[in-house]
Amino acid sequence: MTRMKIFCDFDGTITTTDNIISLMKKFAPPEWNAIKDSILNQRVSIKKGVSEMFLLLPASLRDELVQYLLDTHQLRPGFNDFIEWTRQQNIDLKIVSGGIDFFVEPILEGLLPRNQVYCNSADFTGDTIKITWPHPCDEFCDNECGCCKTSIIRQEAQPEDFIVMIGDSITDLEGAKLADLVFACDEYLADKCRELGLNYRYFDTFHEVIEGLQEINRKAGTYGQLS
């Protein structure tokens, strides 16, 4: 029996922009730019870079940060339909996010139960925001991911499962390498998939993801149980 399991990124994928970047642009001092560039150029790990960026923000800003993202975020078109479709088809969907619980959970409130969401956490008890890491790398990963998507996939999926990865950026690349099919909504991930010979499709809306998965079903059987 082969079952489909979907692992979907949050920032830049479910939301049309990266919420960490949005917060830094609005609230952080200019030093955050150099940290961001170091992450993108892979000079520092995601875990180290994200930690350093949030240490630039006063913990007293918590309510303001949350409200700013609630007011400004946009869900990618079709996401609500995608959630409902996976429920109807009995497909196991997990959100795997390098984002932080204090904004991921409010944005997804009412859309998904929290046990379907993996993300980082934040400690506001000090003067500045300290990020904590409840989903670290396992023994098969030494990339200091923060929220390690490959470790979560290994934890949640069986070898015979058909794994779908949905994402946009460098934080989704290692997960994409474990997937049978990748949906990429940004040229970065699409280019990397092409370079590595991974099975991928480019998408703009989640309606396209639904259509792509329906095509797989026509070829393979039922969604929850591919034959």
Automatic annotation (TrEMBL):
It comes from Bacillus salacetis. This is 2-hydroxy-3-keto-5-methylthiopentenyl-1-phosphate phosphatase. Transmembrane segments: none annotated. The keyword Hydrolase applies. NCBIfam families: DKMTPPase-SF, HAD-SF-IB, PRK09552.1, salvage_mtnX. The keyword Calcium does not apply. Pathway: Amino-acid biosynthesis; L-methionine biosynthesis via salvage pathway; L-methionine from S-methyl-5-thio-alpha-D-ribose 1-phosphate: step 4/6. It catalyses: 2-hydroxy-5-methylsulfanyl-3-oxopent-1-enyl phosphate + H2O = 1,2-dihydroxy-5-(methylsulfanyl)pent-1-en-3-one + phosphate. One of its GO terms (biological process) is L-methionine salvage from methylthioadenosine. HAMAP family: Salvage_MtnX. GO terms for molecular function: 2-hydroxy-3-keto-5-methylthiopentenyl-1-phosphate phosphatase activity; L-phosphoserine phosphatase activity; magnesium ion binding. GO terms for cellular component: cytoplasm. Keywords: Amino-acid biosynthesis, Hydrolase, Methionine biosynthesis. PANTHER family: PHOSPHOSERINE PHOSPHATASE, POLYOL PHOSPHATE PHOSPHATASE PYP1. Pfam families: HAD. Its EC number is 3.1.3.87.
